[in-house]
Amino acid sequence: TEFMELCGDKQLWHNYLVKNGLGDYLLPTRPYSPANLRTMLRRYPLLFLKPRVGYEARGILRIAQGESLPAYNNTPHAIHWFSSARHRELQTGTCHFNSREGVLRSWEYTREAEFTAELQKLDFSGYIIQQGVHPATWRGHIFELRLIMQHDGIGWRCLGKVLRLTGRANLPLITADRETWQEALPVLQELFPGQGAALLQQSEEVAHQLAQSFSSGAMEFSLDFLIDTTARLWILEGNGKPSSFLVQIGDYHGRRHSLAAKLSFAQKLYLNTLPVSGTETQNDNRGTHQLIGS
Question: Which of 45, 57, 95, 104 is a good FRET partner for 211, with 20 to 30 A between their CA atoms?
Fold first, then answer.
């Protein structure tokens, strides 16, 4: 419950990670206000505006200054907005695709003054402003690294590591539209020769550090990272109920293994409530499971 509440609010999530010593893995973030937006625009050429409470990238704006993207914008200043078709603002601009997952539209400006004036007209109450970085891509697809962590009553362990890729090539941001999954290590070794295994090890160390901050009742969570073009890890978001993801990627053996670990956790909690009678020794029968993509 604690982790679900944190994951559901990006500002609370950011604050919690900073408090627990993970600030080096976080992009500069501020709550939305016109003044904060002006400051961030002066400081960073690439920004993201994200709803504090949101999912699957819906409602996210990508604000780029001084760069162009083939097929998405040809002018030095552009706004990309991915959201549901219900947003009135999305009836204007250039539509790049419209699917069941959402709509991607863009607005282009040749003059900076026009660009900033347009941004000030929009109300983003309930949003955060975050510095953007240029993500590593694999075969034209942006991706994020996802780790699944689980506690079985004895300790935390990483159940698996996979890459979640956008279903469309050359997208300017990560969306859930037609997403696919790939094994993490082969892709990272291809992109960052000699660094792939170290990146996975570093991500697992971060996940373990985060796990140690939770209360004793926590059972599982997933942690998503963005990897930029310099092979640096950035924490994106977490999920307090990741087990259904195993079914989503077709790893039913992993799902069974996950459920067995939950039963072990419940058994451990139950045994801890019983009165102590003599000395007992409990074997560690956790075992290991090679998740698809780990």
Answer: 57
| Total residue length of the chain | 294
Q: Say if CB 198 and CB 206 are below 8 A apart.
A: no
Q: How many CA atoms lie within 13 A of 34 on its CB side?
A: 8
Euclidean distance between CA atoms 18 and 234, whole angstroms:
13
> Is 84 in contact with 58 (CB distance < 8 Å)?
yes
Residue 291 or residue 47, greater confidence = 47
Letter string b/e over residues 253-276, b meaning 16 or more CB atoms within 10 A of that residue's CB: ebbebbeebbebbeeeeeeeeeee
Q: Give me the long-range contacts of 255-258 (CB less than 8 A, separation at least 24).
A: 257/159, 257/287, 257/289, 258/150, 258/159, 258/220
pLDDT tens for residues 235-285?
998 887 665 555 454 554 555 555 665 556 555 555 555 454 443 333 344
Q: Which residues pair with 81 in a beta bridge?
A: 61, 105
Q: What is the pTM of this model?
A: 0.77
